[in-house]
Design goal:
The chain is of the alpha/beta class. The chain contains 17 helices and 19 strands. It has an eight-stranded parallel beta sheet. Strands 14-19-16-17 form a four-stranded antiparallel beta sheet, with no helix packed on it. The relative contact order is 0.14. About 5% of the residues have low confidence.
């Protein structure tokens, strides 16, 4: 805490009585939060019908994204018009906000970077990954190994932070998430020539020193993956120059370590500049691996798979969480998005080193609502927030009643934390008709809580040429995917998709209602045109929102090499 933060009521984190608390208006604050769908915050008009519903759900904090592509559509020209309107509306509704910066990365891809970044691969190189046939292909991730990329993102994020410092006098914004679920999907590491050169060069001495000095206190998952390093330490001096595979062996986990080191440095560069501009709590989040059931690059929905590349390789998961903590001092904490992982073990992992726990994404159904109690009660979480809140109604939202009760208890909960009184959150899963509860008793004398769930880029690019295609889509119940017919096309993606409404049926004049990205375009892979009652399938992340205007204008681009 600094004096200026306290005097100006800038939100800050404070450890009191052994537990972390978020201080808002100079008072402890319990986050009863929920996260919006990816495209909702692109339009203040779209949000007009949502604020009241959020209040009826007993929510006090809304998590919503601010995207690089929306605030800097033209390089060097920043527009915060929609954000400003949204902040005013949120405050009027009696709600606070946590902003999610979708900059270089969101869900292991770069679909939220502006069009001038997407199409200029000579200035903003892409990473390369192996395709199914082993041939390298261009990914949709901008490179973390080139300074142009991080410099551009840093500039944009710093402008956002300065803007908030200047206009958010009522401190509607409580915290900022820097990037979203960073890491590389589709391969365990970037295989561009520049990345290969770094990978085959000497491991930075300070990383070797850090690992050797902390080897026995690293997370157990990290220790398990560093077996080769234990042997190497006996063979080499820590000041010796050896490649990544010399030190750590040849494996996808060495690739993951390499990517984690560079991703963390990338994110820290952005966070440090942003915090200098506005000293508000900053964090980043993690896409967790799917519990091991065979591995492979399998299904990327919800939790990916169990190997690096099936989940974003290099993100801040347990294998590399200690390295992330070490390399990102400007982040106040790292947060897990929990959908399929062991809830108790995950919460414990992300509290490592006495850090605050916050869950920015989790299931929005009844099991998720039950998890809430463990997070707040047993792990002293700042909050645990369901994703996809705005496509539910208050009466069908599993957290509505839970948040009402927690709101009435929050003073007691916060006071108990300040007084170092132990709190314990627990839940019982629903039983099928006639099923006996065979779970053992929960003992408060144990040091852990048991969950009883039904277990559920690039220097070889001499020249890049891009083309654009603009299409209008109408209707519902389908999706559209685009692919260049050019034999020299290396990548085809969605540059921009906008939901439109007809303002004049005679002239056909259209108005933009929402900017669609993320889940609504499957992270730039296709355009979803869902029906009024989407089929969410067997997954528990609501990847579709119900049909809006049923009109979408989409710009598609392709890069020819």
């Amino acid at each position: 805490m600094t004096i200026s933060q306290s005097e100006n009521h800038i939100p800050f984190l404070r450890k009191s009585g052994g537990a972390w608390e978020l201080i808002v208006d100079n008072k402890p604050y319990l986050i009863l939060g929920a996260e919006l769908h990816n495209s909702s915050m692109s339009s203040a008009r779209h949000m007009e019908s949502i604020w009241g519903k959020l209040r009826a759900m007993n929510i006090n904090t809304v998590l919503g994204n601010v995207t690089w592509e929306d605030i800097e559509r033209e390089e060097g020209v920043f527009d915060f018009t929609e954000l400003d309107k949204i902040l005013v509306a949120a405050r009027s509704a009696g709600l606070r906000m946590i902003l999610l910066w979708f900059g270089s990365f969101k869900n292991g891809s770069s679909t939220y970077v502006p069009g001038w970044v997407k199409t200029n691969t000579s200035h903003f190189p892409r990473m390369r990954i192996r395709g199914e046939n082993g041939i390298l292909k261009l990914s949709d991730n901008i490179s973390i190994f080139h300074s142009e990329c991080v410099m551009a993102d840093t500039k944009a994020f710093t402008e956002l932070q300065r803007h908030l410092a200047n206009i958010d006098h009522e401190r509607t914004v409580l915290m900022i998430q820097v990037q979203n679920e960073v890491g590389l999907l589709g391969d365990s590491r970037d295989r561009s020539p520049h990345a290969d050169k770094l990978f085959n060069s000497a491991v930075p001495n300070h990383l070797v020193e850090f690992l050797s000095s902390n080897l026995n206190v690293l997370h157990s998952d990290a220790q398990e993956k560093l077996g080769r390093f234990r042997d190497a330490v006996l063979l080499y001096q820590t000041t010796e120059q050896h490649s990544w595979e010399d030190w750590f062996g040849s494996s996808v986990y060495t690739d993951e370590l390499f990517m984690a080191y560079h991703y963390a440095i990338y994110v820290e560069s952005i966070a440090a500049a942003g915090k200098e501009a506005y000293n508000i709590p900053l964090f980043t989040n993690a896409w967790l691996p799917k519990p091991a059931v065979g591995g492979g690059l399998g299904n990327l929905i919800a939790a990916g798979g169990s190997l690096p590349g099936s989940y974003p390789s290099g993100g801040p998961i347990s294998n590399v969480i200690d390295i992330w903590h070490w390399l990102t001092p400007s982040l106040d904490f790292v947060a897990p998005d929990i959908y399929a992982a062991d809830y108790t073990a995950t919460c414990q992992t992300y509290k490592r080193g006495g850090r605050p726990l916050f869950v920015p994404e989790q299931r929005r159904d009844a099991p998720g609502a039950r998890w809430l109690w463990e997070a707040i009660g047993s792990h002293q979480a700042l909050g645990a927030c369901p994703f996809g809140i705005d496509s539910l109604e208050p009466e069908s939202f599993a957290y509505t009643a839970q948040y009402k009760l927690l709101d009435s208890l929050k003073a007691l909960i916060l006071r108990s934390r300040q007084e170092s009184k132990r709190t314990f959150g627990f839940y019982f899963d629903e039983l099928e008709g006639g099923q006996a509860d065979e779970s053992p008793p929960i003992s408060l004398s144990k040091s852990s809580i048991f969950s009883y769930l039904e277990h559920l880029f690039s220097e070889d690019l001499i020249q890049a040429v891009a083309w654009l295609l603009r299409s209008m889509l109408g209707g519902d119940g389908f999706k559209v995917e685009f692919k260049s017919r050019s034999a020299t096309s290396a990548f085809t993606g969605i540059l921009r998709a906008e939901e439109k409404s007809v303002q004049d049926p005679v002239t056909g004049d259209l108005r933009t209602e929402r900017i669609l990205n993320g889940d609504e375009t499957r992270s730039g892979k296709w355009v979803n045109m869902p029906s009024e009652n989407p089929d969410y399938g067997d997954g528990f992340i609501p990847l579709l929102t119900p049909a809006g205007t049923r009109i979408v204008e989409v710009q598609v681009y392709s890069i020819d090499e």
